[in-house]
Amino acid sequence: MKYKMYSLYNFRNIPQLQNAPEEKLRAIEVVGNVLPFKTNDYVVNHLIDWDNFEQDPMFILNFPQREMLAPNHFERIASALVRNENRRDLTMLANSIRMELNPHPADQMKHNVPQIDGQKLSGLQHKYAETVLFFPSQGQTCHAYCTFCFRWPQFTGIDELRFAMRQADLLVEYLRRHPQVTDVLFTGGDPMVMGTQQLAHYLDALLKADLPQVKNIRIGSKSLTFWPYRFLTDPDADSTLRLFERVNRSGKSLAFMAHFNHPRELSTPQAQEAIRRIRDTGTLIRSQAPLMRHINDSPDVWRDLWLEQSRQGIIPYYMFVARDTGAQQYFAVPLVRAWEIFRDAYSQVSGISKTVRGPSMSAGPGKVHVLGVQEIQGKPYLLLNFLQARRADWVGRPFLAEYDPKAIWLDELRPAFGQASFFYEEEYKRIWKNEPTDPVEKNLIERICA
Length: 450
Hints:
Radius of gyration: 22 Å
Number of helices: 16
Oligomer: single chain
Distance between the termini: 47 Å
Structural class: alpha/beta
Low-confidence stretches: 435-450
Largest sheet: 11 strands, mixed
Shape: globular
Strand content: 15-25%
Strand order of the largest sheet: 5-6-7-8-9-10-11-12-13-14-15
């Protein structure tokens, strides 16, 4: 099947939208001028329930909705379109709104980008000591865009907000200088938009470098949902699978980090055959996704998602919560409710699906796990924990926050018992002021920031 893209400029040609209300189409145009919008004919023809499209989770996953922008932002863009503003002025207006949407949450642009000999490596992120994220420049788009994407600035055309790098040799050199790194994650965008030759350029560089400390190579991708033909009928589908086999034979573990938001994404024959073909190469498939209002904020949806993943040999990995960027106000589920959804779904699956962890916030200090509500002397508190952290000795240390049924992110929580701060906060501030107070902290800065 040949890939056919729909975007802001031709989505009105989609046959199933011909009878859609003009107000709905206009909203797509307005929001699509701020947040990235792209879908394709596989999504349109196989994933969306067009009999109920306005409430359909797959439609909301791909097509911008009016409420994804604040009312004042929506009206500013809508008015500019009515005035038929020229492209330059419209882009400037959209960019000004984008800068109000926290384009780089968790200080990833400030604190995660490493250097070599004073050269900033704009295509790498190194937040946790063991894992380096690599953004190959040819993979900084997707077969379709999720409306909730926390990396939406990658697709807006603002170079200063993008992570991307072409030089495989710089990645290898950085890994040589950081022997604590065991995992390299290819991310984006979606690395699977690259052809086999481009992907092999980077993977072969890692294999030829003979870096014994690098045990795991991961590829983060939504392609099994948005374009399973990448592994079925695309011209280089077979050669890509042979590349996966070669990586696995090298002694490295290749993990395909899939992204499934809803059981329907696993239901098509195309997706199921693509999953089978990838698994046949010896590649592990793990799946992670955020909990999103309007898409999957139901225990039954997550239960069915994990059960179907396990049935198809996919390892459930993470449930995230909506990050503090983009259209968070539209998608966010309060942390207490997120935990209730996770608990209710988790209690309905067997041990084989209980590999999943969550709900988790990828915040500045690390991945904060919402463990649940703990009652102490008759009063409820929120129990939290670090699954990953900027300092290794923060991991696994439970801490308490005041119970807040409305809080949707870490910065809305207050420490329990009237304490001035959470246990990690002062150290976290010192780390980024480059004021190490002990050898462990100094070593962290040297490893990740130098």
